[in-house]
Amino acid sequence: xxxxxxxxxxxxxxxxxxxxxxxxxxxxxxxxxxxxxxxxxxxxxxxxxxxxxxxxxxxxxxxxxxxxxxxxxxxxxxxxxxxxxxxxxxxxxxxxxxxxxxxxxxxxxxxxxxxxxxxxxxxxxxxxxxxxxxxxxxxxxxxxxxxxxxxxxxxxxxxxxxxxxxxxxxxxxxxxxxxxxxxxxxxxxxxxxxxxxxxxxxxxxxxxx
Length: 209
Fold this sequence. Notes:
Layout: H1 22-36, H2 58-68, H3 94-208
């Protein structure tokens, strides 16, 4: 592809990164590319439009609407826990008093249920929390084990890359040395040929004179 880039750097083998001026040169290249980079107006246009309301419940929507309208939060109503007497005009109404008694019995039963729930929580709550904490510990151990496995894989990949780069660097160094040796030999051969040609030419000129 036209955008493919071949990376020929060997960071595990190459030397000279700490030499003076190398870091400044790299920083200058980054700054130069940054100046040339001109992002488009909407560089995320290839992504689908996010649905910001996907996880909103009716309660959340109502609360957001209240905040948008800058309305005060509705206070907790304690009316259901009150035990009102009949209005002044119904003090002698038996039906009104029966309703008040029913309401008080319902409130009393509600308190009884709350006491039972508290007693159940005192009896079984600690054990339930222990089980839940054990579950959390198991989850934590599982995630830590997975993390260690990923770190091990990363280390193995880095070791493999290092070995490959060291082997490649040593091979490149040997090939470069061989190339220099061959070029030197070719140069020596060319010099010898030129010298022999000069001697032959000199002898030829002497024989003709």
